[in-house]
Amino acid sequence: MSKIAKKRKRLNIISNVYAFLVYALLYIPVAVMMVFSFNDQKYNYYWNGFTTQWYAKLFTNSTLVDSLIYSLIIAVLSTLISVFIGTIGALGLKRYEFKMKKFIDNMLYIPIIVPEIVLAVALLIIFLKVGVSMGMGTILIGHCTFCIPYAIVTIKGRISGDNETLEEASMDLGANRVQTLLRVTLPNIFPGVMSAAFLSFTMSFDDVVMSNMLAGAKQSTLPVLILSMNKTGVTPDVNALATIMVLIIVAAMILNNIIQGALHKRVK
Amino acid sequence: MNNPIISLEGVEKRFGSNLVVKKMNLEIAEGEFLTLLGPSGCGKTTTLRMIAGFEEASAGVIKVEGERIEDKEPFQRNVNTVFQNYALFPHMTVFNNVAYGLTIKKVPKPEIQERVMEMLRLVQLEGFEKRKPDELSGGQKQRVAIARALVNRPKVLLLDEPLGALDLKLRKQMQIELKRLQKKLGITFIYVTHDQEEALTMSDRIAVMHDGVLEQLDVPMEIYEHPKTKFVAGFIGESNIFDGKVTDKKDNVLTVQTEAGMMQVCGADFEVGEEMHVAIRPEYMDVSKTPVEGFDLPGTVKDFIYQGTVVKTALDIKNGQEIKYSRFEQDTDIAEGNQVYVYWRPEKAVAIKKSM
Amino acid sequence: MNNKKKKNMLPALAMAGPVSVWMILFVTIPMLYIIYISFMSRGVFGDVVYKFSTESYKTILDPTYFKVILKSLKAAAITTILCLLLGYPLAYIIAHKPKDTAAKLITLIMIPFWTNSLMRLNSWLLLFQTSGPINNFLVGTGIVKEPITFIYTDGLVLIGLITNMLPFAVLPLYSTIEKLDKSLIEASADLGASAATTFMRVTLPITFPGIFSAIILVFIPSLGIYTVTDMLGGGKILYIGNIIKNQFGAIRNWPLGAALSVLLIVITMLLIFIYTRFAKIEDMEVV
């Protein structure tokens, strides 16, 4: 092998080692979280022996289950609202010019760029001033407020230039605006909508700041529950739940990839 | 060749299990304009990139000025490249782009100033120093790319299809400019293109490549008049090509029997009974209303194709093949559907050894 | 004419209407209100007295608060720099892998983010506990005599910040590096530049917009976040985010909280302004 090839090989090995180390840094907390789901201790402090009891006992912890369901409901609702408003919003903003367009475009960047605490606090004092009582509604509003801009940015990126040409072709062939929207535009931007939905769901489900500041006295979302447990120690069943959740998502991803791959082969 | 400036000995390039360049032997003389010509995928760009250092040869030796260069990185070699997409640095002005190579070599600033301005004058881009690449047209970008390479006074300039993105008129203009530049500076140019007209116009010698193999290395006229393989005959200019067997040989005039009929061609190193190909260019063919001695090549007139400079007439012949001959003006006494007999002067056709 | 104009506006209104209304109701108005509140005064019982005062802004300049702000800025800055130093090489490596490998690697970076961020922070706490695995290893192998107190320190908070923010640096960096035209690297090498020189003179300047995006996406959230300090700081470490939150909790000083929020907004806008003005590709002067 020539000197150059040898140098290149060496560099390649160093690069791969480096990448591995960085990935390790990112995955160590995940691994620790999973390991400690098997910890035989009431509150996770240190390793005290192996047990699988937490997986069995998971759904007997009513506080945990209530938070989980609460988070799920909010996440689903946030996703539905944000994706709906975001999809038609992205289409409307991309295609039409109207007086306030620039203003709205800039407004959309605020929830993305400004730290969430500022948004949360701003909504909090407005809600309190107006006299709205804190609860699922306020949390929902908070979540949608940052999910909608992310949804719009995601979908906008998928509205290709030729989307307009497709719509013109559709109308040329006799379809009206609604039919064009349903039969041509939506299927075309579908991957973008799906990405936006996935993004909205994860952001809402994982959210701490809005859910903390805008919460009612009675029920917490799952992340807020974990935050409150941190002082006294997190119970391993939470680890078990978190482990199950990430495994479900990874499985879903893999399944999605397999389906996509199979679809492609079919087309060929 | 004595002291070739570049030599390739047994050079091969493999990508995975694909042998893209097969046992290439090539010697390039100093100051020559050599073109690597061939269709896409023939290995010409890969060969160029091996000389530049962007690809490593899988086998064989490449020498520049007699020195082996396999162990040298691209920045250690005394060759410069003009890229197909120009590869101008978008964040630098025209001046800084052209000056780049000199800056790296730490040439003193006053000298950089002088040499860059001289180069810009040479490519007729004086006054463009402060412009950025995105403010330039295709032709201007091309000239900056050339200036950037030449300002380093390389012994060899490698050009990878530099005119491909330009429109026809500009391309023809640049071909002439490039050729004049090369003659003036005396630098060896190795030029890659798939455009055979371009190759024929500019080159001192052409290396025709096909499927990784160097099929013929010759001056343009020889490549055109005496193609040595079936591929070269078909690729350069237009030819009608027949596969056949020699049935008779008299005074180096061969009579060849093909599926289309009988024909004659001049060929000294062919024997009776040998399988070979006959190639004849449209401009050398003729038709007659009556059969011609030595030929048995009947055809039916299909249609006339007007091409501006010539009119091509397409004929359907015995084996279903279509052949074309060309005239400056349309033959007035033939019409579509007519039966004619094709013939030519044997010395105008080319006898080609059978390809494997 | 009027009828036609109305017809044309309807689809636009129908589609962009909801998002516009939402943004104005839940972003514009609240943000304006918070700016307004920041200029109000605080009553004895922690209520808002609607009298104009710049007291909260003066409080920010008060040494105790100002120190906290500086600490937060420092932590955010260090986080950003380390994320860039760690993230750029990684983004570079991924960008130079074959396309499908790169896609898988990018997904791999995102997977930890599908686990709850608080649980991941909790993991760092467990790891670095006084009686945790890391200390056990250090003491056990004799590297130190007594366990080191990692928890509730700025250092641990920094680790939490970096591991949380790293993907936000890697993604924009990857996106910019991936777009870099490979022939520019070859051209630079062709003209005599070594790999290091090519990186400094070509790659780095051209990828600068990606670097700036990464800076914005890491620095700003690092400033405002309070969960990391909450989880890993044990109440001992307070950054801007924590202070703001506290003003709306037990402490009840809304104007101050609002003023600090306005400060965050101003810093954010400043960075954005610099980005839009200067993140175009700079010219490198030779002569």
From TrEMBL, chain B:
Q: Which reaction does it catalyse?
A: ATP + H2O + polyamine-[polyamine-binding protein]Side 1 = ADP + phosphate + polyamineSide 2 + [polyamine-binding protein]Side 1
- The UniProt record lists the ABC transporter domain at 6-236
| Domain of life assignment | Bacteria
Asked if the Swiss-Prot or TrEMBL record annotates the protein with the keyword Transmembrane helix, the reply is: no
GO molecular function ontology, one term from the record: ABC-type putrescine transporter activity
Q: What would be one Gene Ontology cellular-component term for the protein? A: ATP-binding cassette (ABC) transporter complex
Q: Which UniProt keywords apply?
A: ATP-binding, Cell membrane, Hydrolase, Membrane, Nucleotide-binding, Translocase, Transport
Keyword hit for Calcium: no
Q: Which Gene3D superfamilies match?
A: 2.40.50.100, P-loop containing nucleotide triphosphate hydrolases (3.40.50.300)
Name the EC number(s).
7.6.2.11
CDD domains per UniProt: ABC_PotA_N
Describe its assembly. Answer: The complex is composed of two ATP-binding proteins (PotA), two transmembrane proteins (PotB and PotC) and a solute-binding protein (PotD).
Q: Family, per the entry?
A: Belongs to the ABC transporter superfamily. Spermidine/putrescine importer (TC 3.A.1.11.1) family.
Function as written in the Swiss-Prot or TrEMBL entry: Part of the ABC transporter complex PotABCD involved in spermidine/putrescine import. Responsible for energy coupling to the transport system.
The identity of this protein, by name, is Spermidine/putrescine import ATP-binding protein PotA
Q: Provide the species name.
A: Coprococcus catus GD/7
